[in-house]
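Risk register update: the risk of archive-format incompatibility is retired. Evidence:
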Amino acid sequence: MGLQVRLYLLLGLMLAAIYGVVVGVGNAMGVGSLAVYAGIAAAFVFFQYMIGPRMVGWTMRVKYVTEKEQPKLHRMVAELAEQARIRKPRVGIAHIPIPNAFAFGRSRGDARVCVTEGIMKLLNEEELKAVLGHELSHIRNRDMTLITVLSVLPLICYFIAISIMWGGGGRSREGGGYAALIGLGMLVMYFVMNLMVLYASRIREYQADLGSVRLGNQPFRLASALYKLVYGSARVRKEDYQRVEGVKAFFVNDVSRAGMEIKELRELDTDMSGDIDQDELMALRTKTPRVSRGDKLLEVMSTHPNMLKRIKHLASLGY
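Archived output:
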């Protein structure tokens, strides 16, 4: 509940900030109204909303499969969807070497859950079910739509800045300087708003982890799956990341940071078994994750939480 409240408070704060800035700038400069910029941004988002699922499916090389083709996968998704009290999403397999899973779509009714070929070879059935629970929680929480709404707000700041700085916001030298100063301020706000969207994205990952546990998956199963995904992603060639760079936010973890996260996670697997069992996860409950300043900065610029902190959060949910 705390994570969800934080997410909606963040949305309210961003909306209030945008409204105040746009009204203030509009009154001072006569450069337009909130409706103008919101309309432009909404047009971009609507276009993304309409073609987004198709673009994600094409980029990830998704092939939707029937129950006959993948009975175990369909059974897991069906059971989790029933527990989550949502309609069973379409099920697909992404033909890419990166071990991962993702959910996307315009709404609950249009939702799709996909796994890659790599993840099916890497995880056992319980770990895969925990990951699928994470993805179905994204659908149940409707956070895909919320992130789309949030992404509109930095666009509004960007359009205001461009309009003021290159749209003739002031004709005199003094007026032009004033317009440039306000435009620069809006670019700064655009950057800050993007950081807030990334923060919201990290919150939704914690929410989905919690959602998977509430669907009956043991925390150590998801922690073990995340641990294996980091190692599996680190083995993938850099060339294979290039195709999915623009859609990596859909993945369970930030695949581009996997190589760096291995060092942090190395000490979790105390028995060197290649996974995280319940005792190893519980041992983390009393420890404080050691995250370097560099890693903290990288987390601020990422769509996903630091993996060590994320597994620590799962330890707090353990039983």
